[in-house]
Write a structure and sequence with these properties.
By secondary structure, this protein is mainly beta. The protein has 19 helices and 103 strands. It has a 17-stranded mixed β-sheet that branches. α11 crosses α14 and α14 packs parallel to α15.
Length: about 1500
Amino acid sequence: MKASGYSAGGGSQHPPQSGNRSPFRKRAVWKKLAAGAVALATAFGGMGLAVSTASASTGRDSYADTVGNATFETAREKYGLTKHMKNGAILHAWMWSFKNITKHMEEIANAGYTSVQTEPMSKIKEVAANGKKFTENWYYVYQPTNTSIGNFVVGTEADLKEMTATAHKYGVRVIVDVVANHFTSDWNAIDSDWKNKDYFHSRSNCGGTDGDQINYSSRRDVTQCHLLGLWDLNTQSQTVADRMKDFLTTAVDDGVDGFRFDAAKHVELPTEKFDNKTSNYWNTILNNGAQFQYGEVLQGDSGLDYKAYANLFKDNSTDGGGNTASDYGKTVRAAIKSGNLGVNMVKNINTGGASEDQLVTWVESHDNYANGDKESTSLTDYQLMMGWAIVGSRKAGAPLYFNRPVGSGGTNAQFAEQSQLGDTGDDMWKNKSVVAVNHFRNAMDGKSESLNNCGENSCLMIERFTKDGVANDGVVIANMGGDQNLAGTAVSLDDGTYPDEVNGGKIVVKDGKITSGTAKGNAVSAFYLKGESKPYVSAEAASNTFTSDTVKVTLHAKDAKDLKYTTSEGASGSFKDGDVISVGSSISVGESVTVTVTGTSTKDGSKLTGKATVSKVEVAKQNLASQYGTNKVGNGVKKTINFNAGKGASLADWDSSMLIAQGAANDDPRVYRPNSMYEVPIDLYALYGAYDDDNLYLMWEMTNVQDVVDTQDDYPLSQGHLWQTQNLPFHIAIDTKDDSTRVGNDAGLKTGGTLWNSGISWGGSQKVNKVVTISTNGSNGPWIYSGDSEGLDSNAEYGPAANATTNTKKSGIKFGYGNGILSDKVIGIDGGWGESNGRVTGDMKAENESKAKWVNFNEKGHDSAKMDDHYEIAIPLSELGTTAERIATNGIGIQLAATFGLSAMDSLPYDLAMNDNADLPDTTSQENNSFEKSDLDNFTVAMANIGGKEDPVETKSVKIDQSSYTTDISSGVTTKQLTATTDPAGASVSWSSSDKSVATVDSKGVVTPVKAGTVKITAKAGDKSDTITVTVIGEVPVPPVTANTIYASKPSGWGKMYAYVYTGDGATAVNNAAWPGMEMEKADNCDQTGYKYVVPDNLAKGAKVIFNDGGSQQYPGSREPGLDYDGGTVKWDGSSSALTALECNTPIPVSSVSISGSGVSSGKLSLKKGASAQLTATVNPSNATDKTVAWSSSDIAVAAVDKTGKVTGVKAGTATITATAGDKSASVQLTVTAPNETVDIMFKATDVTLKSGETLYAVGDWGQANAWKRAGGVKLAKNGSAYTGTATVTKGHAMAFRLIKVDASGKTTWDPAADRKATADQSKTLEVTWDGRAVSQTVDITINAAADLKSGETLYAVGDWGQDGKTWTRASGVKLAAKSDGAYTGIVSVKTGHAMAFRLIKVDAGGRTTWDSASDRKTTADKTKAIGVAWSVSTVNENGVPPVTLAITGDGVSNGKLTLSAGSLARLSVSGTSSKVDMWWSDGAAVAVSGTGTVYAVQKGTAKVNAKVDGKTLSLTVTVQ
């Protein structure tokens, strides 16, 4: 339905974009989980498994029923249709019946349409006399009479069900048009159950007889009044909302997958409040089970929050949604009508701040075609085909193909009546070229895009590609000219041969260029190859060179994980496909920035990388004709200018010395259109400036030479002067020369788009601190906008009146205008419009100066006093953030733009951006005008200047007074004040951050960390800069939730949030503060966004709360009681009439883990084989919910680590020791080295008698210093009946030694026996006696055993290892003591080389012995070593680690038990064997288990899961809660 008004001036401030999250978003998440559950059931094969998905909705879930359905997916993939409706083409089967759509469904699938859109399905008014003819009849389909399904055009509900079932059979999804804003204008036609005036807005609240007078700059009028006299539904009524939701839910149950909402912008947003009422309408009706929903939100209204609507539909749909991109349809229609397909003409898509995948695009809609203005009716099939080639092949949005009635449009009648309502339309929807574009689109789904012209502007190439080295790319060419030889054309396609689906030709691509191929004239070509893309990552810059402060780079990835990016400026971080970063802020002209992206293939694990390099270049010189100039006279004057505000402002105080920019007459861009509707030679001619201690004064002249150019056209002479008739904005950009308050993003809006939707930005050599806006007659404004490095604020800093909601202060600007100008000459270019009058685009350039007819129009009879106007403005310096002293020293820059509401039409200083698209047709309804009326204009010329007579002092250097540093945010965020020293001192310093998602820096140098990562902080003074690196570690802890807390979402249009809480009345009243109460703070816990307020205990029972903005807006309304509050944690969604209880179980996550320990340095540790070290893991924050640390070794054959962090070197090699807590971990790289070829030799002396005061030593030569001296010997200490001591000896050394006794006086007595001899071949014990020649050699064997012991049981190793006395007895065995890791250990001394045999036994408290059932363990005491054994396992591990016993293991398994929640999964396996499990089974109904060990918790209860492996049966008890 077409119902739109547009005020060319834009009219008012843009409201802030809504950031509220939909309360129904989690439902959409469940839908995808439900789809996954269906797939899960399939994975279990033949096993009977009941899966319930009835959780969030009782109705059909479209996403689960289609994309989550294997049968549907098979059909969709067969026809190559896109998985996501938001990416696929839509066939608008306009006025087709359901049965006719059903009949053609296979053709629709073959033609590549992902979705088919039907007409409204509700009962409608029927005029019997009209029958089913289109004329004067079609629009009744958009006028419901109730909310039942079925009407005389589309058919019955049974027909609908048949159609949707057939669609799904062919992999096609169904969108139904819905009229949810209004009913018919005929009250008598409305069904009786809807004939309740409470269900509709009052007609007396709006102008006009039927309440149909709508001012489209008033959102109240747009949403509360009666569009075209149609009965407007009371969308604030919950009853109406519930009934509409039931209607839509029924349709989804009948198989519908998506909805288009007619006249959607006429239904207020949930955040909008009108007539003291808010609406929950959208939040109710959109929660219907559909996967894709979009609204007819025609662009152009002042105050329309286009982005908020797009987000509303997206957030309340399972798999995407958004708005109609009506502006782009105008652009494409203008292009195909003119035959000019220049990239500048067709590239820009006005997204209104929404993302491109939230748009539905078209060449024409049913309104464009069928409405009375016949906006697109005259388009021919050829033009439609060309337009579809553009719209259908571009990446943005879901393109909608409107199907016209048979034989209608083009050169035929709008409605030829060759078909009737309910019939199929003409055959263009299945035209070969249209279908090829659809196939191309489906094959290129998700790929990047590039637009270029092929030779002439009549030939446009739309490339789609991935930089993966595979020929799976393509290009659609719309060629409205002759055949084009494409050889030598640069393209982004990978090398390969690409066939044309339409015409049968091909192109060959090699090394980034087409080497052969032709684009057929007056035809569409679709050259492409469909194929699987390789995994890849890439970075794509908006341009390889740039002149502005920064340039945007889009990061892409496919089939890749672990995605990271780094820039040569020092920024880094993770990303997801489609993320956009800005780079270049820290470099100068001539320097480059490289963005590197990395990832890991999810298919084969290979490493992926991609790069993009961009260079900052000088702004191109524009070389204008000599008549143009900037600061032709001096640098401005300090003088007070007196004038009256409004009409009749005097020029008396101005003179030519104040001229700062000179323009020319008759250079309006529409002059260059060959078929302009009319010429409007009103031009900015000259700009003057002055200042005093209080104000900046500007005066500009506008000339109108229509009295001597094209005199036969009396427009706009007949309309009077601009200040009499127009409300068109002037935009004045101001450069205060203060880097600290610079506006970034080329002064675009932070929220997306440009100020007042003007399409104007300021880049190149222009620097902006403020923008002043006022309309030609002063009725709108003045406004002053400021911002920061992210762009302009959408709310004005100063305005015509103060506004607490937007934090706008009242401005002291004075504005006046009047007839006549100061200039005594009016110089310009003579000639009427078009080349036939000698006008050529660019004739204002210096190279064309001699060709252009420059004249003084006054000499041709121009009446300047009557025709020309001047405008004056006085702007307080305080509002600009500067002073007269600063202007005098540094100057102030000015750029003035005059507009027609959209785009700049003229500027001072003059910029060729005013003329770059002058010869192209306009894309609005006035297509005979110039595209300059609505194109994008980026100013790059040097600004005009006032003041600054002293040459600015050049900055020699700047140095940040702080080195790079690291800050940990685990315990909270701590800011850091940076300062910088400049030479000379006192220079202005600006600060910037390379990645604001990691840390921000304000204009005063205060750094605030945000999240973990690294960031470059740069200080800049003049053209000098200095940079430090800030490393942020940890994660900001979530603060605990206070018992009595109110959370709230801010309604649209509110600047601040206050909570006024009170109890009682009159004398008993108690409140939290005087009105407006306490300002709420940003919510930072309980998983909430928005705001929060902690209520005092004395107001936490029987209280009421009123939310307000600290100004005029509040909820509930004035004189209404507050919302009931009785303590606890609650939430207000920004519109509901009650608070809802909120459970806050927000876990405090682990933000970081670090490892320390003796020997750990820079994340590395070295150990000798057999040595141990104790590691300690520190978990942050200290109040993390779960601080449990799990230790692991990447190679237990090299190093083992126990649960306390004690790590032991097992053999030479490297291993990674990791400590994990939550989802964070830290690692130490451990290197284990073999001992340095040394062994430990124990001297054990027996049968030695020492007198009182005597000490025993072993002395000799074993390679040590002080051989054969007591100082080099080993003191032997009493050890039982023997004396022992140990020496470390080089392995293999031939030892010689003797015993000595030393008394208290130092006298030494040598053992009379000869030298003992031994070889240090291994660690061992040398047993000797005093005066004995024999040396007995033993080694220590450590037995490590794994066993489960009952209370009171003790574990022993018994057997034969050459011990004295009896073998195989407990008395001769060794008792094994418990270790910290759960194993048991003991040491036996065995003669070297002895063949050992032993077993394990358990002895209970009563002395009863249980023998291990496994066979004897055997080993040889060849060296000192540790061996590992386990109960009932015959294996002996020579590495000292007990063998793993057979057991069922998996996440959550503990002590042979597992607990699951109903509906959840767990994957089990068997440890202790490499054999495949023979069988898995469950002995109860509580759980089911697959043949691979995946357990599904079916219902509450307990069951055993069993596994058979290696001839043994293992069991695990599973409890389902």
